[in-house]
Amino acid sequence: MDYRQVIKKLESLASKRNVEGMARFGIRPKAKVLGVSLPFLRKIAKDIKKDHKLAQELWDSGIHEAKILASIIADKEKLTEKIMNKWVKDFDSWDIVDQTCMNLFGVSKFADKKIFEWAKNKEEFIRRTAFSLMAVLAVKNKEMKNADFLRYFELIKKYSTDERNFVKKAVNWALRQIGKRNKKLNKEAIKLAKEIGATNSKPAKWIASNALSELTNKKYQNKLK
Questions:
Q1: CB–CB of 157/192 below 8 Å?
Q2: Is the confidence at residue 200, as pLDDT, over 70?
C-alpha cells in the first residue's frame, strides 16, 4: 500500500465512539484522531511489512493513528537520531509515546543515549519518553546488564518529584519494570523506592508506594526465586 491507500484505509475504520473512549483514558492529542484500534493498526502493518519511507510519510500526516502505524512499520536499522529527535517533538499523548517506544525506539541502538538526553528535557511527553524507554528496555532487552539499569536510578530519583501526571506514571513504570527484571534489581529497586518515599514530595511518595506494593508482592517475589 502507498500513502494514499493507507490513509484511505484508516479513514474507513474511523470510529467516533472509539475517539470518545480514548479521551476518557486521557488520550487527547493535538493531532487528528480517527479512533482506529491498535489490533486494526497491527493488521494493516502486517500487510505493509517494513517500509521506512512510508513510515516517515505517515508520521507527517497529522493523524494520530497514522503515527502509531509509522512506529510499527519503520525500520530500526534505518532509524537515525535525527528522525528520533524529530518524532519526539511531535509526541502529544501518552499512548503515542509508549507505542513508539515499544515498537521502535526501544529497539534502537540509540535508546540508552536518548534516555539520559530526554530525561533532562522539560517538555512533559519528551521526559515521559525517557522513562518509558527504561521500562521497555527492562522488559525487552535481554542483553543489558544489571549495571546498565542501575545507571538509571539517579534519573528515577531526581525526576520522581515531577508532579505532572504523565511523567509521574512513567517514572513509576520504569522503577517497577526494572525491579521485576531479576532478584538483584528487585532488591535495589525496593531500596530506591524507600529512599524516594522518604522525601517530602507528593508525587515521589505516590511513586514509591505504588512501586513497593508491586515489587514486594509475593507473586513477583516467587517468580524471581
A1: yes
A2: yes
